[in-house]
Amino acid sequence: MGKSLVAAKLNLRNIGAAYLITAVTVGCMMVQDIVFLILKMFDINPNGPENATISFGNYFFLLLVFSAIFIPSRNFHKMMNLGGKRADFFKGCAINHAIMAAAISLISIILYHTADKFMISALYGGGTLDVVYWFGWIGNGSVVAFFQQFAFLLLLAVVIHTLTAAQGKWYGWAADIVIVAVIAVFIPIPALRPVLIWFFNMVIFHQYAAVQISFCLLLACAVYALNRPIFARKAI
């Protein structure tokens, strides 16, 4: 377990590009809103009364997405060349994604109740486009919404991580084709559309939070298990 934690720490230290992309994006949006607030002080309102904006918390999703791409595509080779073990990398990545999903979910909930509320009252009468609100999770209370968002983000990170790790192999391309085929076939055909609706209800919109959380966590575990044979065969 100690070696897995070391692998997790090394991963967190070696995703500078993910941190930079997220910081630049959040920084640009903060500068924009500060400029808008200054303009409003001079009775210049660049936004209409019904304009909306993306929640600050949701911009941190970029960190989760890019870390799930960079860790398997870049850090694996670096860690193996440093004498790391594949099993430790496998376990360490699971720790990384759990920490990242929990931290971003917490940040998102906090910003929903603070920065978002302020920006709605000051600039954006149309509200903020926030996942916890539009997916209906916040209606279950902040604590439950945290776990719902955590489970969803963990599943998202695991899927991206697995697809990235599989690229360059036939099964990676096969997975890409299957995903595109499912989207292209299931949406236009009315008889198959209920399958997609059921899936998204289970992952996002289920009326019972415990079912949504459990389904996301179980599916995340099942998808992440595919990484063991992928990394076992991955060339260094």
What can you see in these coordinates?
This protein has 236 residues and is mainly α. Helix content is 77%, strand content 2%. It contains twelve helices and two strands. It has a two-stranded parallel ribbon. Helix 8 runs parallel beside helix 11 and helix 10 crosses helix 11. The longest helix is centred in the middle third of the chain and has 28 residues. The model has no long low-confidence stretch (mean pLDDT 87).
Strand arrangement within the widest β-sheet reads 1-2
Beta-strand share of residues: under 5%
Mean pLDDT: 87
The level of helicity is over 70%
Separation of termini? 23 Å
Shape: globular
Main sheet record: 2 strands, parallel
Indicate the low-confidence ranges by residue numbers. none
- Beta strands, count: 2
Write the element-wise H/E pattern from the N-terminal end onward. HHEHHHHEHHHHHH
Supply the number of helical segments.
Answer: 12
What structural category arises from helix and sheet content? mainly alpha
Quick overview of this protein structure:
The protein is mostly helical and 236 residues long. It has twelve helices and two strands.
